[in-house]
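#random but structural
TW: two for the price of one
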Amino acid sequence: MLKQIAAFLLLRHSGTARRYPEVDALRGVAIGLMIGYHIAYDLTLLGMYRASVVSGAWRVFGRIPAVMFLGLAGVSIWLSYARLSPVLGGWKLYRYYLVRGLKLLGWGMVITLVSWVYAGQPVILFGILHLLGAATLLAFPFVRAPSRDLALGALACAGAGWLLEGLPVAHDWFLWLGLRSPSLFQFDYFPLLPWFGLVLAGMAVGKWLYPAGQQRAELARLGSWPAARALAWLGQRSLLIYLVHQPILLGTLTLIVSLA
């Protein structure tokens, strides 16, 4: 069973052949910002940097890459639908999103287990990878909606998330939705409400920027810049970088602390 799960997670997702360099480049920017924030977070965790990185300007900075990842996920969902829907339909079309979503959820669970072992408690129960996996599974019924309806759905998610955040609860059964008890501490927490709204907003933006999945000429020119190509290389490997960067950062910084 474990071997089958490992094989499913490690096998390359087939996806679609065409890439959009400008989308990959933006994802590369998000990766760079995320690594920068996590360096500051890890330095604080190890006592090497005395500042709060979970409030104020640092908190805002840490949210920027998350917002970018979720918005770009919505754009990518629309692009894959625009390319695949003319040749696939029904179950075969949804299977693409099912496989992708389950794989992201699976890697999210791996991060949950690893962080649990490291911290001694479950500190990442529904992080951004869990959210991306769930959003990929849930977004398919909405992908054919007009951009206006997707934007309204994004606003509805934001409003519902704001309402849920203030509700007092004594248990964490609906942690994934946005309801958690005040005593539950989480390193990385991105519930469906309000964050699924950003994926819907990204789908609306994708429909506007890429009508019928067609790349506008000005976007193609942006993707041809040398800096954009370098960032696109990072963006195409965003999942791998996300999975390995924290062990590398923490291991390196811990070694520095021990030597000092």
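TW: number two ↓
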Amino acid sequence: MGLKAVGVTRCFSGRTILEAVDIEVGPGVMAVLEGPNGAGKTTLLRIFATVVRPDQGEASVDGYDVVRGGARVRERIGAAFVNERSLYWRLTGQENLRLFARTRGLSSRDARAQVDNVLEELDLVTISRRWVADLSAGQRQRLIIARAGLGEPTCMLIDEPLRGLDETGIKTMLSFLRGRAARGAAVLIVAPKLDELQPSADILFRLRDGRIHPWGETDPTVPLAEGLRP
């Protein structure tokens, strides 16, 4: 059933960050939500991740309400936010992923297998035994995304996945995320710019002043409309 928000509004310190947001991303779909810094993109991801509650409206993951069914929601999502501190810097990349895989409820054997797979998919095998503190920003970014893919989540919430990546890293990342969508996951990516993301997206959304706009509405030179890729 994927991700769905209806009339979601969220305010902080008297300021409206999200206003009556409606958005839906179905299974097997890779969607990109574009908007400038401070537009409320990450807030929306955090609502879907049950970290922040909406003030009004409803949001759900696979039909489970993010407020009333938080535990069920967290079982189904894989989230990656722009925050390098989400990794343990005094552990290796492999140790980090195995630890997080176990917290997802995987057996030791399954954890090892899934970690080996995501390391391969994101081209991290050769650096997986190095301390996270010694890795580049781009390598840590790929590890954070790898963590989000553990446990075969049905919905993935990804914050700026291309940050700090070179051309090769970007291709690897996009292949990984497209692969997750191809396996049936609903993938929602937020980013301040489309850049390399646009050709890989099935659906494009634009967030301005806390509201979702049909693609092209705020920039008539963009040939896409109604949020859909041709």
